[in-house]
Amino acid sequence: MEIISLSYPLEENGYSRTEGKRISVAIGHFDGVHRGHQNVISEAVRYARQSDMLSAVLTFSPHPKEVLGHGDHYYRSLTPLARKTELFAALGVDMVFVMRFDRRFAALSPEQFVTEVLQPLRVSHVAVGFDFAFGSRGAGTPELLVELGGSVMSVHVEKPLYEDGRKVSSTLTRESLESGDLDMVSALLGRPYDITGTVVHGDGRGRTIGFPTANLEIVEPYVAPRLGVYAITAWIDGAAYDGVLNHGMKPTFNKTDVMPVMEAHLFDFDRDIYGREMKVQFRHFIRPEQKFGSIQELIAQIAADTDKARNLLATH
Q: How confident is the model at residue 17 (pLDDT cuts 50, 70, 90)?
C-alpha cells in the first residue's frame, strides 16, 4: 500500500496524477477505524475492484477539531496515523492520501475541495459517512457532494450503524474506553482496542514480589483507557501472550503525583524483552486502581487479578 503525504495547494507538493487509473476514495478522519468507518472504506474498495480503479483513503492529520480549537483532547487518537494506515491496508486499500489539515486547507469552500483536491487526484467515486462534512465551517454535506460530483464523480453515502441502540462513532468509542466498558469498545471497533509501545526498565519491584512486569513506554498519542487493571493479550515478535496489566499511578508506592504508567505481567513468560516493541490488546476490565495498606495485601490482590484474568481470557 502506498502512502502519500499532501498539503494544500496540491501543486506545492509536486504531486500530480495526470495519468493512470482513476480512483475510488473513502474520505474521513477515521479515528479508531471502527465498524462504521470500515463499511465506508470497504465500499470504496469494492467499487474500485468492480470498476478497475485504484482504491484509496483520503484522511487528515492532525485531527480537524484539534486545529479548529474544538478540543485539545483530540491530540490523542484511538488510532495514531501509523496504526490507522495498518488498518487501512488490512481492508485492502491500495493507497492512502494523508492531507495536512491546517487553516489554509480548512478555509476551502466545498466547491474548491472538489475542484482543487478531488479532481486533481483523478477521483471518480467517493464513499463517505452519512454525517460527513467538508469545506469551510463544515458547509459541505453528503447531498452537496453528490450535486458537485455531477456526472463525473459518483458518491456513495453510508448509512449510520448502531450497536445496542447507540450510533457507532469515534466519540462513543472514546467514552466507552475511558469508562472501562471494553465490551462496548470491542463491539464498536470489531476488535480489541490496542496500544503499541516499547518495553523499558521500571523500578524492578514486580520481580521482587513474584510478579515481574514489562513496563511500556508509549510515544504515540493514544487515547488512554480508564485507570485500572485489565486482562490483556500482548504481541511480541509476532507471538501472543496473555497477561494482566495495571494502568495507573501505583498509589501503594508513590507519594507524589506522577504520570500514569502501564506495566504488564505476562503469564508463564520469562524472556528478556527490553527494547522490544509490544502491542497490548485490552480484552477485559477487571477493577479500578486502588491503594493497599501493605505489600502483602497488594500481592494477594495481584494473585486474585491474575486468576481472574486467566479465567476471563480462557472463557472468552
A: confident
Specify the long-range contacts of residues 118-122, CB closer than 8 Å, at least 24 apart: 118/25, 118/153, 119/153, 120/10, 120/16, 120/17, 121/10, 121/17, 121/23, 121/25, 121/56, 121/58, 121/97, 122/17, 122/20, 122/21, 122/22, 122/23
State whether residue 243 is helix, strand or coil. Answer: strand
Instruction: Write the CA distances from 266 to 206, 270, 274, integer angstroms.
Output: 12, 9, 14
Q: Indicate left, alpha or beta for 35 from its phi (over 0: left) and psi (-120 to 50: alpha).
A: alpha
The amino acid at 5:
S
- Which alpha helices (H) appear in the chain, and where do they start and end? 35-51, 64-67, 81-90, 103-106, 110-113, 142-149, 170-179, 182-189, 205-208, 295-315
Residue 260: cis peptide before it, omega within 30 degrees of 0? no
Catalytic residue among 263, 277, 289, 297: 263
Q: State the DSSP code for 72.
A: G
Tens digits of residue pLDDT in 266-313 = 999 988 899 999 999 999 999 999 888 788 888 899 999 999 999 999
The question of whether 178 is a catalytic residue gets the answer no
**pLDDT value at 122 more than 90:** yes
Q: Which domains does the chain have, with CATH numbers?
A: 2-163 (3.40.50.620), 192-315 (2.40.30.30)
Task: Give yes or no for a contact between 144 and 138, defined as CB atoms under 8 angstroms apart.
Answer: no
- Please, what is the Cα angle at 299 between 296 and 305, to 5 degrees? 145
User: Helices (H), strands (E): how many in the chain?
Assistant: 10, 14
Residue among 220, 218, 183 at smallest CA distance from 83: 220
Contact 56, 23 (CB under 8 A): yes
